[in-house]
Backbone:
């Protein structure tokens, strides 16, 4: 369980970079400063995200073909996708996070890659049968969100599926301050990039205290 001091450390690192108009630099700073102390990383639960696991349990037939994990952190979700049957590529902007994932899973068939969502390899376009975005959009400032959505959508192959899991809020609620919860309108942007919404859930998760989550799936239809 993460202490308030550690959470404050992570927020302080983020704040400095955000104030310096460097919204992507803090991830590497956080992972590298952590050394191997996972308690510093707010989202490092060292197990697959239960909101992802539930979905995979409900739709086991989805686990086939090539998968891409956006912002893979320390690799737990990528490993779970592979365990379920996907051929998985997982990327993160932080070289320390990728090195850490490779060290944790030295025998893993997952292809762990250092890459920035906003300048990902061109050959990833329309390449993946399944794309998993969980918790990256919500740590990107709102002014980067539309472009992040466009980039994420671009990876999905024709007929492929995108699963998105994020903190949710009403448009009338405060925008937040890292993490920035998403609105339903934010998620509907995926439908402007050739994707069609298949499912949409709005629920309180099992964290303590519970967090409002949106979990949505989209299929590429054009
Ligand atoms: C909130 S963490 C979630 C990590 C992981 N999905 C999990 O649930 O444990 C967001 C991750 O996205 C990565 N990230 C942030 N911006 C990115 C970008 N532009 N390109 C690739 N990865 C990025 C961060 O380094 C971090 O590991």
Residues:
């Amino acid at each position: 369980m993460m202490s308030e001091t550690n959470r404050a450390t992570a927020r302080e690192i983020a704040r400095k970079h955000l104030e310096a108009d460097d919204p992507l630099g803090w991830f590497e700073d956080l992972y590298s400063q952590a050394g191997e102390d996972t308690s510093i990383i707010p989202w490092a639960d060292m197990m697959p995200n239960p909101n992802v696991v539930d979905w995979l349990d409900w739709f086991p037939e989805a686990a086939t073909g090539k998968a891409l994990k956006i912002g893979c952190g320390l690799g737990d979700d990528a490993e779970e996708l592979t365990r379920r049957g996907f051929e998985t590529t997982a990327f993160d902007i932080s070289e320390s996070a990728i090195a850490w994932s490779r060290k944790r899973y030295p025998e893993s068939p997952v292809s762990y890659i250092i890459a920035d969502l906003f300048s990902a390899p061109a050959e990833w376009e329309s390449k993946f049968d399944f794309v998993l975005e969980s918790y990256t959009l919500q740590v990107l400032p709102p002014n980067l969100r539309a472009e992040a959505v466009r980039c994420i959508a671009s990876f999905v192959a024709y007929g492929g599926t995108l699963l998105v899991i994020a903190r949710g809020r009403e448009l009338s609620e405060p925008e937040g301050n890292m993490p920035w919860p998403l609105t339903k309108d934010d998620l509907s942007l995926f439908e402007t990039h050739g994707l069609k919404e298949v499912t949409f859930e709005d629920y309180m998760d099992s964290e303590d205290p519970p967090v409002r989550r949106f979990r949505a799936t989209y299929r590429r239809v054009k």
